[in-house]
Specification:
Length: about 250
């Protein structure tokens, strides 16, 4: 368990670009919960993992007081000095309470903690990816259509997005597995991954399309000053040339 744990942590950190200290801290926190659950501990507990050997040690934490009122969380100064000669009133001393059979429980708990940390890291990476693409055009595939609300779920490369009914072009029809391009208007963190909102009616979708299709707009020779749009019907774009001799229209 000892060397295997460190080897597993190192491998996961390398493959998933996770910080080693963050993963170790997550495992230690999970082991505290596992220890309390399996051994009935109710006081303050600390679990430390030696990052070189992988050795697990469990400690009961006691505060040094003149008179003990809570045996589970306090210890007298005399008792504390028997553990640590430098202990003083108000200090916290750690009393090792590592169970002999804690390794088996720790192995399963560590695995679950690592998997949870991987999921959290992947969700955060996905959020950052889409946050950087906010106010841009994205492409995806229609996955589901809610016939009750009219909302469309769109599968993107690394997640799902919602195209609400109100953001759809009137009379435009969608089919499952059909390709679609839309404007990414909002990106929020969610408990199960980023929450993405798309629009097909936003006026800036037309701006981005023009930037993609017209080189003069993309390089700044022609500037879009204003856009008025009736989605699915007509649009008007006010443009101005920043370079003499260019006809912006």
């Amino acid at each position: 368990m000892r060397n295997e744990l460190i080897m597993a942590v190192n491998q996961i950190c390398a493959e998933k670009a996770l910080q080693r200290d963050v993963v170790i801290e997550a495992i230690e926190a999970a082991l505290v919960s596992a220890y309390k659950r399996n051994f009935g501990a109710t006081g303050n507990v600390l679990v430390k993992i030696d990052q070189d050997s992988g050795q697990l040690r469990v400690f009961a934490q006691r505060q040094v007081v003149e008179e003990v009122a809570d045996n589970k969380n306090e210890i007298t100064l005399a008792g504390a000095k028997a553990i640590d000669k430098k202990a003083e009133l108000g200090d916290v001393v750690n009393i090792e309470t590592t169970p002999a059979n804690f390794g088996r429980i720790a192995a399963q708990t560590a695995k679950q903690a690592i998997l949870q940390r991987i999921r959290e890291a992947e969700r955060e990476a996905t959020y950052k990816t889409f946050a950087d693409r906010e106010n841009e055009i994205v492409s995806g595939t229609v996955q589901r259509i809610d016939h009750a609300t009219g909302d469309v779920t769109v599968g993107l490369e690394r997640g799902e997005a919602i195209l609400p009914k109100i953001e759809q072009i009137p009379n435009e029809r969608y089919r499952v597995n059909g390709r679609i391009r839309a404007f990414l208007v909002e990106v929020h963190r969610g408990t199960r991954g980023p929450l993405l909102k798309l629009s097909r009616t936003h006026k800036n979708m037309l701006r981005r399309l023009l930037e993609l299709e017209v080189p003069e707009i993309a390089n700044g020779t022609v500037e879009i000053k204003s856009i008025a749009r009736e989605p699915g019907q007509r649009s008007k774009v006010a443009v101005v040339a920043s370079q003499y001799g260019i006809d912006p229209v």
